[in-house]
Design brief:
The chain is an alpha/beta fold. 36% of the residues lie in helices and 22% in strands. It has 15 helices and 19 strands. The protein has helices spanning 2-9, 11-20, 27-30, 74-90, 106-116, 133-138, 162-172, 224-235, 260-275, 290-302, 317-324, 351-358, 362-366, 386-395, 415-430; strands spanning 45-48, 53-55, 64-69, 96-101, 121-124, 145-149, 155-159, 181-188, 191-198, 208-214, 239-243, 280-288, 308-312, 326-327, 330-331, 340-342, 348-350, 373-378, 400-404. The strands form 4 sheets. An 8-stranded mixed sheet has the order 8-9-11-10-12-13-18-19, sandwiched between helices. It has a 7-stranded mixed sheet with strand order 2-1-5-4-3-6-7, with helices on one face. Strands 14-15 form a two-stranded antiparallel ribbon. A hairpin with a 4-residue loop joins strand 1 (45-48) and strand 2.
């Protein structure tokens, strides 16, 4: 169900994505000969880094992650911290990690393990990569490669991309958390705004931070990109509110009358509403895509009233798009825009959107915010190049910046990793 909601949430992004065709990942090039999901994982017996004998079959009944790597491999060394992070997160849940090294030098292998803090089981044949029996048995032609073996001893996943393993393991164990949500209506710039509040169980008189979420162009308040974060915040004592901008989702207003300035006014109306809630101690903003632009400019206008800001793939490209006379692939004369531009389905882009976007002072306004900030972007984002997010980081001194390799505009490669990063930042900053 959440995947369906995600598709709706990213409707605008996927519409543009379709113009370019599907984006192949590195598995289509480097994992073609890896053992396939559903096949029996070949058993093997090898010596550990300490000279003990290890057999894969001794872990039968457990989920096992096999990490094929080598100390001399640059890509393996780049991925090693992420594999260690996953081990620390999932080992307490009973997931076993086994590093299968293609090293021939024990001391170099041992030194790399110490350097990266690798403490899980390590095995090797101490032969050259292409000469190892394990590489032949598992079809490993490229390192790093990873294979997940399920409790029945069958291959569940084979890939050269760590984020796919992280996503698989995250979905393996549902949290069982049942969020408590309250629906409210707020007066916005162009009519009533529909919103959802989640707050922790508070004692009388107790206060907590509130995070305001701003969705992207053509999106809504629904979907796992925000829900995963709001659920995590609620579990950890922080409230949140997500709402539909005017002309979107369940809120009033016409889409063709939507502009970034009136979305900023919507955001301010929501902030005014939550500021009057007695249990709210401080306010933070999170925005995705165009919502990131709204969040950044709102924070710049309100200054110290905002305690933290998170921008997820902020679409500051929208001004350049308007100047070029091309929004989501639709062409128009930016100096004399039509009354509206047909986009997709019933959606039409109004003249005022183009005219206001043409000279929108995005970075100039955002520069007035000086508080804690996180900017997260994917370098595989073909809708909003990551350089637009990087500019916010360069402008906001002391901000945190996470560039997710291969990730697209909606972070679809592993939405859980993205939302975990955002949630962790907010918990560190607001608690």
């Amino acid at each position: 169900m959440k995947r369906i909601l995600l598709a709706a949430f990213l409707m605008a992004a996927t519409t543009v994505w379709a113009q370019f065709g599907p984006e192949p990942d590195f598995d289509s090039k480097y994992a073609t000969e890896l053992v396939k999901a559903g096949t029996q994982a070949p058993d093997f017996k090898m010596k550990t880094i300490d000279g003990k004998t290890f057999k894969l079959s001794q872990l039968k009944g457990k989920t096992v992650v096999l990490d094929f790597w080598a100390s001399w491999c640059p890509d393996c060394r780049k991925d090693a911290p992420e594999v260690v992070r996953m081990y620390k997160e999932y080992a307490p849940q009973g997931i076993e990690f086994v590093g299968v090294s293609m090293d021939t030098d024990v001391e170099a292998w041992r030194k790399a393990c110490e350097q990266f803090g690798i403490t899980y089981t390590q095995v090797s044949e101490l032969k050259k990569f292409k000469e190892t029996d394990i590489a032949k048995a598992y079809g490993v032609k490229w390192i790093p490669s990873m294979v997940v073996v399920d409790k029945e001893g069958k291959v569940a996943l084979s890939t050269v991309l760590t984020y796919k393993v992280d996503k698989y393991l995250k979905e393996l164990r549902p949290t069982g958390f049942k969020p408590i949500r309250e629906r409210v209506t707020i007066d916005g710039d162009h009519g009533k705004l529909q919103a959802v509040i989640q707050k922790p169980d508070l004692k009388p008189g107790q206060q907590c931070p509130m995070v305001v979420f701003c969705h992207g162009f053509g999106g809504t308040k629904e979907g796992p990109l925000f829900e995963l974060i709001t659920d995590s915040l609620q579990k950890h004592g922080i409230a949140s509110i997500r709402f539909d901008f005017n002309g979107h989702g369940e809120s009033e207003g016409k889409f063709e009358e939507m502009t970034v300035p009136n979305e900023i006014n919507d955001a301010k109306k929501v902030i005014e509403y939550v500021r009057d809630l007695r249990y709210v101690s401080k306010i933070a903003l999170v925005g995705h895509s165009q919502g990131g632009v709204v969040a950044s400019m709102t924070a710049g206008e309100l200054g110290s009233d905002i305690s933290a800001v998170v921008l997820m793939a902020p679409a500051a490209v929208l001004r350049d798009d308007a100047i070029r006379g091309s929004t989501f692939g639709k062409q128009y004369n930016p100096l004399d825009p039509p009354e509206y531009v047909e986009l997709w389905g019933p959606q039409r882009l109004g003249r005022n959107y183009i005219k206001t976007a043409f000279s929108l002072p995005i970075y100039e306004t955002a520069a007035n915010y000086h508080g804690p900030a996180l900017i997260i972007h994917g370098n595989g984002d073909r809708i909003v190049p990551y350089t637009y997010g990087l500019r916010f980081h360069q402008q906001w001194k002391g901000s945190e910046y996470v560039l997710q390799e291969y990730f697209d505009h909606g972070f679809s490669q592993n939405i859980y990793r993205t939302t975990d990063i955002v949630s962790d930042f907010l918990l560190r900053t607001l608690k």
